[in-house]
Amino acid sequence: MRELTATVLENKKIAEEIYALTFGAEETPPVRAGQFVMVGVEGFPLRRPLAVCKAEGERVTVCYRIKGEGTRRLASGYSRGEKISVLLPLGNGFFVAEKEKRVAIVGGGVGIFPLISAIREYAETKEIYAYMGFRNKGALCMQYEMQRAKELVVATDDGSVGYRGTAVQAFMENIDRVRPDVILSCGPTPMLRALKSAVAGRNIPTFVSLEERMGCGVGACLVCVCELTNGEHARVCKDGPVFEIGEVNL
Amino acid sequence: MSDLRVNLCGVELKNPVIPASGTFGFGREFDELYDISVLGGVCTKGLTLEPRLGNPVPRIAESRGVILNAVGLQNPGVEHFIEHDLTWLKAKTRVIANVAGRETEDYGKICARLDGLVDFIELNISCPNVKCGGMALGVRPENVENVTRIAKSALKRTPLLVKLSPNVESIAENARAAERGGADGISLVNTFTGMVIDVERRRPLLANNTGGVSGAGIKPIAVRMVYEAAHAVNIPVVGMGGIVCAEDAIEFLMAGATTVEVGTQNFTDAFACPKIIDGLQKWCDFHGVERISELIGAVKMNG
Questions:
Q1: What DSSP assignment string belongs to B92-112?
Q2: pTM score, two decimals?
Q3: Cβ contacts of residue A144 below 8 Å, gap of 6+?
Q4: What tens digit of pLDDT does each residue of B268-290 get?
Q5: Out of A70, A216, A225, closest to residue B23 by CB
Q6: 3-class SS at B62?
Q7: Partners of residue A230 in chain B, C-beta under 8 Å
Q8: Would you give the DSSP letter of residue B47?
Q9: Which of A45, A47, A222 lies at the smallest CB-CB distance from B66?
Q10: Which residues from A are below 8 Å from B59, CB to CB?
């Protein structure tokens, strides 16, 4: 975990309301799939937690949706060459065990971005089956990254491209053929809930990456907690953001 | 080199900069970023006798220049802290244990448990209290005095700081109430109660509806309150509220604070505290201030 003053290499719109920010710094530490960074936006007291989409040596790409004033400022105020303060790498990330060869990836909305980092990390050594949900054609992005998967199904709510329906529905139509050893997922809470009930009883290790409003991002302030099934609270930033699906109440 | 050491209630701190309760855990996470032994002290996450889960999420919101939090005292309980964190933290720097309770009696019990184990107790009396009809214990001067007396009577060795809420009629009156109750010092300000509404959902953004406002935007109010409180009592004051840089910290010292706490800025800049310490050293060296303690209460009012 380090704080860097990085240089913005690119910050561009890649879909409706979605931006991809690439920054670089010589001393960028290694970043794993599923980890995140806290990005400082000048004039805003809280950093923005953003999932890592790509980490290539000293270059890191994070993607974000314009959600409020902070992300709007991030999109408008940080063009190529600007300096940006980042805290990284944060969180635990996705881990796929050696013996798990067939990896199913189920993502929706901005949840697809941390999953792209997992596709990139495991594409060479695993068989990846990806089911990625988008609102509509206008929201579709990063197709070339998702195509690293052995199988890719793009799902849209309105059927404007690919499968008509949700990523979870697309996945469940294929699960018996794909027979995944492990499932990695990230997306809106209703999607994660649907996945949890759909795979219940199948005994497939399933890991979800959670999103929560954060304070410090390093585990100190206990702002971004999630509820565990044992009644305890876990810190999304430090104990997560990736949890076994059976371990958390969604 | 100017001397940054200060004496708070008879205990020497290597400098006056302390991360504020709730923004720094028990120090372990920030120690992964920098050696926290550079700090004057660490004020712990609010501790209670029993472990607490706190409020539902979202627990944090942002507004221009400020944040709001409603964590609700999530903590692993005082015994867990003593067993797992205290020895480690004590070896690093001075430990200020922030403590809270459900009932006034809880304050006595938790103080008794920590007496002699930590360098200071900081009494959090801003949490809603059942016996006060849900009102914070720290609102009415008579309640402030009462809970201070109960805590103080449980302490034989550790100095007691009472952390004052700013959501009160008269901060000077409440400062005097803490002094009458036997406080060795006071700290202020705790957060201001506020609300942020998500206009799309027509609901408050925080699950708790309201939360404590902190950050740069509250600083002028906090400086004024520290000035008023410091001039109302003869015990030392720990000042806080929106400190971002060394000059902000100096304002609090000049207003009458002996040490300062830095909270929200730890989120904006994880290295805020060491940067402020460096800044204080440079400011004092540049201005020929031999000892930083000379700045305490140094402000002179106009006309």
A1: HSEEEEEE--SSHHHHHHHHH
A2: 0.96
A3: none
A4: 999 999 999 999 999 999 999 99
A5: A216
A6: strand
A7: none
A8: B
A9: A45
A10: 213, 215, 222-225
